[in-house]
Design brief:
By secondary structure, this protein is mainly α. It has 2 helices and 2 strands. It folds into 2 domains: 35 residues, no CATH class; 64 residues. Strand 1 and strand 2 form a beta hairpin.
Length: 114
C-alpha cells in the first residue's frame, strides 16, 4: 500500500507542476502537499482499507448472487423442458391411440364361408 501511495503522490505532483490550480475529486492540490498530522494520515489509511475490504466483499457477494440466479434460471429451464416433454409424450400417446382406434374401426374382417 505504501508503494501505491508513493506512486499516487508522484502522479499528483506532476499534475500540480503542469497546472496552476488543480482540483481532483473536489480536493484542491497544493505543490508541496497538504500538511496533515500523522494521526489523520493513519485514520485515512484505516478508512481506505475498510472501504477496500467492503468493496471486495460486495463484489464477491454480487458474483455469488449472479451464479445463484443463473443456477435457478437453469433449473427453471429444465423444469420447463420436462413439462414440454411430458406434454409431447401425452400428445404422442393420444395420437398413437387415435391411430390404433381408427385402424380397428376400418379393419376388414375376412371370413371364409367354405
Amino acid at each position: 500500500m505504501i508503494h501505491n501511495l508513493k506512486r499516487k503522490s508522484e502522479k499528483l505532483e506532476k499534475i500540480c507542476d503542469n497546472e496552476e490550480s488543480s482540483t481532483i475529486c473536489g480536493i484542491s492540490l497544493e505543490v508541496n502537499g497538504k500538511n496533515i498530522i500523522p494521526e489523520s494520515i493513519q485514520a485515512l489509511i484505516v478508512i481506505y482499507e475498510e472501504k477496500k475490504v467492503a468493496l471486495y466483499n460486495a463484489n464477491r457477494n454480487i458474483k455469488r448472487l449472479k451464479a445463484k440466479v443463473t443456477q435457478l434460471q437453469n433449473k427453471r429451464s429444465n423444469l420447463d423442458d420436462k413439462t414440454d416433454l411430458n406434454q409431447r409424450s401425452e400428445k404422442i400417446k393420444k395420437a398413437v391411440h387415435d391411430i390404433l382406434d381408427e385402424k380397428n374401426l376400418e379393419s376388414t374382417i375376412l371370413i371364409s364361408t367354405e
